[in-house]
Specification:
single chain; about 70 residues; mainly alpha; 5 helices
Length: about 70
């Protein structure tokens, strides 16, 4: 089940802001980085850990940022 959800997310079938459901530790790190004003670094971290394309990583971090406030 988790694998299927991950594949859907990587293909773009899942909601952009679903990082917390897939990788809770990464989600927590990204949120901490965003609180510290490190948006670009958060995008790089997501790319490094997930292997997704730069634009997709940026959209994902943007979605997390909106939810974080």
């Amino acid at each position: 089940m988790e694998f299927d959800r991950t594949i859907r997310w990587l293909r773009g079938d899942a909601h952009e802001g679903s990082l917390s459901a897939l990788q809770p530790e990464l989600d927590a790190e990204v949120r901490a980085m965003l609180r510290g004003g490190q948006h670009t670094e958060a995008v790089h971290l997501v790319r490094e850990r997930t292997g997704i394309a730069p634009a997709r990583a940026r959209r994902l971090v943007d979605a997390v940022e909106v939810r974080t406030g």
